Amino acid sequence: MSFLGTCLYDRVMKASETACLSQWRESLLTEADGKVLEIGAGTGASIDSYPEKPSLELYLLEPDRHMRKKLVERLKGSGKNDVKVLDSAAEHIDAKNDFFDYVFVSLVCCSVDSPAGALKEIKRVLKPSGKLIFREHVAAQPGSDRRKWQDRLNGMWGFIAGNCHLNRETEKEITEAGFVIQTIQRESMP
Ligand SMILES: C[S@@+](CC[C@H](N)C(=O)[O-])C[C@H]1O[C@@H](n2cnc3c(N)ncnc32)[C@H](O)[C@@H]1O
Description:
The chain is an alpha/beta fold and about 190 residues long. The protein contains five helices and five strands, in the order αββαββαβαα. The structure holds S-adenosylmethionine.
């Protein structure tokens, strides 16, 4: 993400956060506990959504230095001093095998260089009993008008929005990486 993109990110996202994203994030994170890793934590929009559980140990991974700076500032302001910040990319997570109980991704599978590489790494660092929680924007149905526009605008959008892809088939990528999807809810952003 560019310096400018980072400065504008929270402002650009505000309306969507208020309309639905915050609520979806909070309900998804209710069950998070134990060692929890958030990948691509950005400016820290999720920090206050994690449940207050003494057993929850939070790790936030953010490889982009501009985003990470904002993340660290937000963490300081929140008083959450025991959160660990990692700077590796999702494709090379700096953690042992079978380490985390939960991994959370929010609007990240659209932006990583290699969704397959990132998901393989997530599987590696998750305990066999661990869970991946995801909240992602994805490709519309093939052949739909929305999908045609996603395909047309994809290159330009990626350039503006920090490598974000509009047309990734993330659910397929997740199952191809060997995850079994227990629950999935598809929503349109109001
Ligand atoms: C659209 S932002 C989402 C930020 C935050 N998760 C949220 O929900 O507001 C995408 C984030 O993914 C990060 N990202 C991009 N490529 C990544 C990679 N290979 N590994 C980990 N994070 C990555 C970006 O730096 C950015 O912070």
